[in-house]
Design a protein that fits this description.
601 residues, alpha+beta, Beta-galactosidase, Chain A, domain 5, 3 domains, 14-stranded antiparallel β-sheet, 4-stranded antiparallel β-sheet, 20 strands, 41% helix
Length: 601
């Protein structure tokens, strides 16, 4: 390794060390985080009254009813719970605010084996904000009266008088993840200023940890929304963000976690939506979400609003079946990577899933099929590299003849040789580049694949998260070693060694690239060590099959026959049409050579 490479490595380690120091939180940030933790504690203990101007609710205590105020009788009461249940959900409604208090997904577990609640305790606030008789009203803080209810439906009413009330009607179909909510505002318009054309909907939720790797959960959790133009957008997954949408109306808003989401849609568009995400380092809390939006309000008549909640997994086929573009909250990658996953990988995976095989076997078969599909390109690439390998003695002879002090002339002579023998110097790279989108596509596919959640294979207990084969106290942010990631790294290093041993590259840039080939897998190990075992398993299989494929192809290729064919091409040159790239390259070299000659004069 030369001096430049050593200096480069030193700089890389210096950058890493500096980043750990610079990213250390300041005292102000620590204080702000403590305030957030205190607020979250109040939420969990039920000491919460929403304020439309704050993203975290403040603590308020109401001792007795003030009958002089609008809805004064509803400011005190005893919370009643109503249970709705179908084949997939158990939904508990609370008379306090008339809201959804908890949602249990039947048959699903958290990583620690406890029942999986998408929403729980007092972590969900839902209500309308408006001004009545000069007083600010938040329905989330008021007590509704429970009406008739069954296992599939329930009615809750917030009374002002016999003919003035706000009524919530919930319906839970026998099957599915959807909960309908119809809101009837009867006579309320008579309490509101005639100038008020909108009523504010406030929805807040605190989402708790459901999977082993809370860091990965936080990095894949945020608010998604669909506007009236059909575009689905989202807030940043890293850090806090607030976004005000004033130019477009919004069709639905999703509080998305890694593998589960609560999505609110409405037949009436949400106007002037304000979306807020807050991250936190509080144990077991993934993120805090808040959204306020306006709904058109008719002050001349009664008003009705139709909402729908989706409480379910981020499973592509489930979200796709909803028909509202919900599936776009799953990040399948951008551009070609997204197309590959949506139109090739997912259909192929679902087809294999239909055979009810272990998901480790499905990944194995999927890898074999894709490697088989890519085999013609792989073989073409390796043959092209073999041609370059057998030409190396002639290329070295040209270098000795021309010298390295005239790079333009050296390139011209090398290009002349390539043309004579009919070799494309970049022929080995292009097939590999065509395979790159497939490799990158899986980088998005497996970490977001709900089907892998909780599924085991070999020693890996959960393919959707890392396999902590060895655990220890944190060192530079690392507290475990993933065995599958180790195996993937070892096989990648073996592949690099085999390529270097058979390439014949011993000097120049190719020689320096050898070191990069060994360094990159080690760097990827630290990056992928906390990634899902399913992804590392796929990369391990991909690296293993690549090594085996290259070995088989190498054994089937006779360098002497390839050299004889190239020499035959040199004796009987074929007229080949130049590509636009070759023409531009030759023209560039001629211009550079002319410039050098002018400088010598």
């Amino acid at each position: 390794m030369d001096r430049n490479n050593i200096i480069g490595l030193i700089l890389i380690f210096a950058i890493f060390a500096g980043s750990f120091y610079l990213m250390k939180p300041s005292e102000a940030e620590i204080k702000q985080e403590q305030i957030l933790q205190d607020s979250l504690k109040n939420v969990r203990e039920g000491k919460i009254v929403s304020n439309p101007t704050d993203s975290i609710a403040k603590t308020t205590t109401i001792d007795s009813a003030d009958l002089s105020k609008p809805f004064g009788a509803a400011t005190v009461g005893q919370e009643q719970l109503i249970t709705l249940e179908n084949d997939l959900l158990v939904v508990k409604l609370s008379s306090k605010g008339g809201k959804v208090k908890s949602v249990l997904l039947k048959g699903l577990k958290n990583f620690d084996g406890t029942p999986l609640y998408l929403l729980e305790d007092n972590n969900n606030n839902f209500g309308f904000l408006f001004n009545a008789k000069g007083q600010n009203i938040n329905t989330n803080d008021l007590y509704f009266t429970a009406g008739q209810s069954t296992a599939e439906s329930a009615t809750l009413r917030l009374n002002y008088s016999a003919d003035q009330y706000l009524e919530y009607s919930y319906t839970l179909p026998e099957k599915g993840y959807n909960l309908g909510l119809k809101v009837n505002a009867v006579g309320i318009q008579n309490l509101i200023d005639i100038k008020q054309k909108n009523i504010i909907l406030d929805w807040e939720a605190i989402l708790t940890e459901k999977d082993q790797n809370i860091k990965a959960e936080r990095e894949k959790s945020t608010i998604y929304y669909k506007n009236n133009e059909g575009d689905v957008d989202y807030l940043s997954e890293n850090g806090d963000q607030e976004e005000k949408i004033e130019d477009n109306t919004v069709e639905w808003i999703a509080f998305k976690q890694h593998f589960f989401s609560a999505i609110l849609s409405s037949n009436q568009p949400f106007e002037k939506a304000n979306l807020i995400t807050k991250s936190t380092s509080v144990d077991s809390i993934v993120k805090v979400y808040k959204t306020t939006s306006e709904l058109a309000f008719n002050t001349q008549a009664n008003n009705t609003y139709d909402f729908n909640f989706f409480f379910g997994p981020n499973q592509y086929k489930v979200l796709k079946a909803e028909g509202k573009s919900y599936d776009k909250i799953i990040n399948m990658g951008w551009g070609p990577m997204g197309w590959i996953n949506r139109f090739l990988t997912i259909p192929l995976f679902d087809f294999l899933d239909g055979f009810h095989l272990n998901y480790g076997i499905i990944i194995l078969v999927l890898t074999l099929l894709l490697k088989g599909l890519m085999f013609p390109l792989t073989r073409k690439s390796y043959i092209s590299m073999a041609k370059m390998r057998v030409l190396k003695p002639q290329l070295d002879a040209i270098k000795d003849k021309v010298g390295e002090d005239n790079p333009m002339l050296l390139q011209q002579e090398q290009m002349k040789l390539y043309k004579q023998v009919g070799v494309n110097p970049v022929g080995g790279c292009l097939p590999m580049l065509l395979q790159m989108p497939f490799t990158l596509a899986f980088f998005f596919f497996f970490p977001n694949l709900y089907e892998l959640r909780g599924e085991s294979f070999l020693w890996m207990k959960d393919l959707s998260t890392y396999d902590a084969f060895i655990s220890f106290s944190p060192i530079f942010g690392i507290n475990h070693i993933s065995l599958m990631c180790v195996l993937m790294t070892v096989v990648t290093l073996l592949t690099t060694w085999y390529n270097n041993a058979t390439s014949g590259a011993t000097s120049g840039m190719a020689s320096q690239m050898k070191y990069i080939g060994y360094i990159m897998p080690l760097m990827f190990f630290f990056m992928l060590n906390s990634f899902p075992a399913g992804l590392n398993y796929y990369y391990f299989l991909g690296a293993l099959f690549t090594l085996l494929t290259q070995f088989i192809i190498r054994q089937s290729i006779d360098d002497n026959k390839i050299l004889a064919q190239l020499e035959e091409n040199k004796k009987n040159p074929k007229v080949q049409k130049k590509s636009s790239f070759q023409s531009r390259l030759e023209e560039m070299m001629r211009q550079q050579q002319a410039t050098q000659q002018n400088k010598k004069k």
